[in-house]
Amino acid sequence: MSSMRSHIRKLFLKNSNKNQNQKLEELKAQQPTPNTVPHGTVSTNSSSSSLLGLGSPELPIVDYDNISQIPKILTEFPAIYLTNHPLPPAPFNHARALLTLPKDVKDKLRDPGKSTVRGYNNAKASGREWWDYNPAEGMLGPPENTEFEEDTKAFFLKSVEVLQNICRQFNSQQQLIPQEVIDEAGFSTMRYLRYSPDVIDQQPSDENSQTTYNSVLNSRRDGDDGEALPHIEAHTDLDILTLITATEPSGLYVWNRRGKVFSAPPIEGTVFIMAGDIMPFFTSKPEMCPLAQYEGVEAIGENTVLPTAHTVVVPRSAGERYSIAVFLRPKREMVLHRRVITRGGKEVEEETAFWWLATEKLHVEGRKCFLAV
Fold first, then answer.
1. Is residue 367 part of a domain?
2. Residue 123 maps to a domain
């Protein structure tokens, strides 16, 4: 556990997005010709890693005009930056204004049904708080604030459109992702998230019941002075794709399938795209299911897009970090996998629906990765 914390701390102290911003400027400045590939993009005739060499592995920056290459890239990298996208400016002003309201006002924005994907919530032990927009259930936001509602809805809708367009690229050669995902917003939501030492409740958490693996992923992060750091435990998202944009300071880290950690600082003019738990159902080996009780890891092939394991750790001295995340999810009842099994001497068709997957993940200890990564 200490080695993982130390590694992340070193990454943070070492990290500078200077090279990444320079790479983005080069990408914008260069006009591709039939014989050239802009630095940071991926050619279908070349390995993506060979085009990114800046001395160490980095995450690719992909131009929105080249999103047809994203399905292949996501089998090689845990996440990508997307540039020249059609999104409006990220509404960080609304996120900051809402999440710094007085406590009594924010408490009025909690969902009466205690939903975790609607309205205001916080995790004081981890130094973070968030507010969710669930369009299917209305906007539980600041009253009589038309600008807040319009900007939030506009960014959400355009983000969903971008994510659906990425999904469309997976179907260019064969139908992998159901058409309803591309045509409808389903159960997609958007989150305003704040990490701040002002939020932290210094009461220590109970780690006695955690497994060794989960203690690495889900433990209370402590700084050199022994005080808790704003963070979120390592996890994967329960969705198809996640779109993230964030402010400095950098604090996001992602893992690839071999356990290598990548720092993922915000880069001006880009948004960050990650895969969620549902993507392996669409991209696993034909007729195989990635759930452990079925084929599990045997269903994972070279063309399988795995969910992106990620965490956020923000040193107390770095200040506040705001992020906006849009989660592309199907309708609750959408069937992700069907299989015929023998039960009671009879063959019956068993279905794995999104709502079932969501229910099952609630029983996973902490928020650790639901599928093998």
1. no
2. yes
